[in-house]
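Checklist before submission:
- one chain only
- standard amino acids only
- sequence pasted in full

Submission:
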Amino acid sequence: MDTQQPPEGSAPEDKTASVKEGVDLIVPVIEIEEKDDQEQPAATSCLPIHESSHHHHHHHHGHKHDHECDKDICNGEESDTEQSGSSDESWEDSSSLMEAAFEQLEDSHVPHSGDQALPDECSKSESKAYQRLLRQVGVEEFIKQTIENESVSARKLCTAFGLRVPFLEGGPDDAYYRILGLAIQREMQKRVKLEEWNTLDDAVRLLQNASNIIVVTGAGISTSLGIPDFRSKHNGLYARLEHLGLSDPQEVFDIALFRDDPTIFYSVAKDILPETKRFTPTHGFIKMLQDRGQLLVNYTQNIDNIEGYAGIEGDKLIQCHGSFATATCQRCGHKVNGDEIHDDIKAGKIPRCGACILKSQQIRPTALKRKRSTDHKRNKSRQREDSDSSSEADVAEEIGIMKPDITFFGENLPDTFHDRLRNTDYSTVDLVIVIGTSLKVAPVAEIPNFVSGQSASIPQIYISRDPCQHIAFDIELLGECDVVIAELCRRAGWKLEHEMAVRPEQSIAIEQAREAWQWNVFVKEDEVSIAEEKGISSEI
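Returned file contents:
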């Protein structure tokens, strides 16, 4: 640990106050006990929205503010409160700098895989020691033992919590205080990994012994059907939407933009409208848990409604971001079966409300039934024609636009999400399995931390292509969801029958990844993938 002289003119009490100011910036914004009325982001297969950076970029992934908030799920939006300056105004940490710092925290994996570190960064062992110390002694005492005692610089201490701040490079150490406070707050609210669970066989034992499993799913469980996810760099839906010229592709699913110009959404809606009633082996696995009496609930961010095709029952399913199964008129609230607007969606058209049309016909039958005049009559009746056009325009304005009941950014999640998690699931769950989502959209992204906040002893397993950087799971199984599920079922002695399932003659390889609890699970390369054999695009 290094020793660095404090900036000139900085008193110990100033240090503590500055760092604690950063800690106090984060406040709960989504309450489970009393749901806030504030608009929340949506999410989609998951909706675009499927995975805590909505298009306004929430970079805090839900952490309880303190013990009094143990029933809160927070999406951790940064406070807009104006911050007081540091000793050097040029290094004043604005909210935009905070956001940039935490975007790095989200995207970079710190600490290092080995114990070697740069002079101004904490090594892996140092980072773990600081993290342990923080939890043992609490925030105020931690600040006293580190910053006040000048045993380590604020700049270096930031790296112990996974945060590098290049835009403050060369500035005084007190410029880092408030950002350090935010990093400390995040750390205090993070889930702590359970050390006794690490291997694939541990995951199997947990699976076999659990009786109330929460399964959280995202777009990754549907990609083997050819349904795109949203954030894959090359084939994800957002990458495909770059041609629209939006400042952020996620704006396609912004409710304010939809109300202003629904053509943008309907120009791409056909790309995410499910055209299949098939389901994947992973969906089949969730159904198997239900049939075995082990499924407490499936919280899905997906809007493809495939869970229903797989046979997952309504009382076991929370569609956090809605689905295409129904649609609602944005003018009169008339609700219809989603099938009624699917033809328009597939044609790239804006579906209109039948109830509004019927009402308009009853009120102004002549305006809708009037036939066009001939050119001769038009010349003689210009004034009447102009009046007719105005009347037809008025009628058109009264006909509402149908919107699929998927939750856009800026819309509240269904009440069932909050009610179910608060009243039933958090007190009953004995295992959490997260499958096929990077957990980047609040408040669904907060489920692991919320459950852990109620009981830190509940094991949690993560299954996806890439590791989760911002939540500490006990076991991470990395690979195609269907392949990982196949191996879990094989080891558990469960027979998962599905046309796309890994065949008995195929070999699944297991390799340890970066950490002792991370495992790569994949079909050996010399064997043809199930997706290719079934003629399903392997580019997804």
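Reviewer check: The longest strand covers residues 322-329.
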